[in-house]
Write a structure and sequence with these properties.
Length: about 500
Amino acid sequence: MVPKLRDPSLLKTGVCYVNGEWIKAGSGKTFAVTDPSTGKLIGEAPEFDKTDTEAAVDAAAKAFESFRHKTGRERAKLLRRWYDLMVENADDLATLITWENGKPLADARGEAAYAANFLEWFSEEAPRIYGETIPASVPGNRVYTVKEPVGVCGLITPWNFPAAMITRKVGPALAAGCTVVCKAPGETPFTSLALAELGHRAGVPPGVVNVITTLKNTPEVGLVLTSHPTVRKVSFTGSTGVGKLLMRQSSSTLKKLSLELGGNAPFIVFDDADVDAAVAGAIASKFRSSGQTCVCANRIFVQRGIYDAFAERFAEKVRAFKVGNGFERGVTHGPLIHDRAVQKVDEHVRDATAHGGTVLVGGHALAALGPNFFEPTVITGLTPSMRMASEETFGPVAGLFAFDTEEEVVRLANSTDVGLAGYFFSRDIERINRVAEHLEVGMVGVNTGLISDVASPFGGVKQSGFGREGSAYGIEEYQITKMVTTGGMGKPLQS
C-alpha cells in the first residue's frame, strides 16, 4: 500500500527549491528514491550538478544583501511561522520520514516534533543577539563588539534524521541573518523538500533558503559548496572521512566550519548502578533508529560483577522487538537504509563470533522481510581486538564488553580517535563527577541513554569534529564578532 499524505503537494518530486521557485536540474537528469522497506520507487529527485549549485549559491548571495539587515524580531517571526506550519503538518512529515528512511512511524513523529523545536528555539534566540562593551586599555578609547551574520552558508545533511538535521542547521543560520544552500541527502530528499515548501508558505524570502538534491554528482556539488568564494561557512554532519575531505576543500577559501562527524560511543554500567535503569538506557541509546545514529552506544562495557545479570535482562528486552515496515502496527524497528549497511552489520557479527563472541539474540539478516532488514542482535564476550571495538557499527547490534575497574574502563572508553558521546550508569556521586570529567567526549549522558535536546549543545571532540549545534551556542557558529574602537572620547566636558 502506498502511503497517503493529507497534503499531497508536500511531496515534491523532480524539482528542487532555488530562489523561491521549484526548478528541475539544468540537465533534466533525475535519480530514483526508493522505500528501504519495500524497495519500491517513491519518486525521482533532480540530479543537480556544478552549474545548478552555483546558481543556488548566487541566489543565496543576492538574498543575503537584504536578509542580513532584517531585525532579529523580523527573523524570529519568520522562523515562528515556519515552526507553526511544521506542527500543523507533523503527520505528513512523519509519513515522509518513515517512507524514505524506514524508521517506525512513532519514531518519525518524534523526529518531526524534535525538528520543529529547533525552529522554535532559534526563533527565540534571534532577537537576543548581543554584543559587549569592553573597558579599553587606552584612555579616551571606547570599545564594543557586534555580532554579524557570517554570510552564505553551505549545509550538508545526512539521511538518518532527514528533518531534524535540516532545522538544526537552518534555524540558527536564519536567526543569525545568514542565507543557505542546503544539499539534501540523496537517500532521503523528500523530507527536506517538504520543509522547503513549508518555509516558502511561511514567507521565507526568495534565495534565503535553497534546498538542492543530487546523488551521483555529490562530490561535484560538495566541491562547489566548499570551494566557492561566496560561501563563507560550511556545516556538515556525516562520516569522519568525508568531513576531512570537506575540510581540506574548504581550506582553499578558509571557510568557517562546523563538523559533526563519526562516533564510537562507550556505554558504561558500573556495579553500583540500577541495573534495570541501565538496561532501559542501553536499549534507548543502542537501538534508536535501528542503531543508525551517531550517538548510539557502540561499545557497552559492563562491570564483571553484574555482567551476566545485565546481559540476561538486556537480551530479554531485545527479544521483544518487532522488526518490519515502519508503517505496520506494533513494529518497533524498521530496515537499515540500504543493503551496504546490512553488509557492514553482518561483517561485524561474523567477526565477533569468529573471535569468540556469543550471540544471545539475533545475528542474521532478515531476508524474508527484504534486503535491508537485520535482526536486533546482542553479543557477549567482546574483546578490544574485535572490529566492533574500533569501528562504528551503525546498526542494530549490541556488543557487551566486561571490565573490572573504573580506571580500566575509562582507558578503554577513551582508546579511540573519535569522541562524540559517552554514557555511564552509577549511583556513586563521587564516581559520577570523576568519570564525567575523564571521558574524552563532547557529550556525556549520566544515568540516561538519551541526550538529544534542542537546549543542549551537540558536538564532539577529537576526530568527531568541532563546533556545536542547538542550544544558545548553536547560533554562534553562524556569526562573526566585529570589534569597533572609537578614539578621542575621553575629553572633559565643555564649559
